[in-house]
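Support request, please re-run this one:
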Amino acid sequence: MKNILVIFFSFFSFFSCKTESKDNKSITLKKDSIIDKIEVKKNRLLNEEKNSQINVKYLGNFTITLETEATTTGMASLTYSFLISKEEAELKIISYHESLNCDGNYNILEKNNTLELYYNGETEYCKTKEPNFKLKKEGNKFFMKGLGGEATFNEWIEVVKK
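Re-run finished. Output below.
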């Protein structure tokens, strides 16, 4: 009797891991392979969603040079060069009498027809909850917010797309 119960429970356990497909053929399901397939699909969807968020109009190189203040040796200035791809943005700053702040890689996110750039580098004071820069297109022109110093930081300034 004990052997019959063991066989019965073994048989029951074996068939409890099966399901029927639409054509009524039994298929053995393996928990690990299902989880792996779900993870692969989830990762693929997340990548597609991430990549599909960025409108192609924002891809490219955007530059601007701003004069910031007069010094005893000339006008201080900052030249920003943003290279934006589907995955991220890279900022390179050329400076004359200004400190180089927050150049490097940025995460990008499109919201409300505006591209937001969030610093993704090692300099802690550059990391903020709000975007460091915003980019938008109006007509055939592009504008950025977050450039320059106190006088221009909150203004939309026209940038050149190359």
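Residues 1-31, 40-49 have pLDDT under 50 and may be disordered. DSSP finds two helices and ten strands in the chain.
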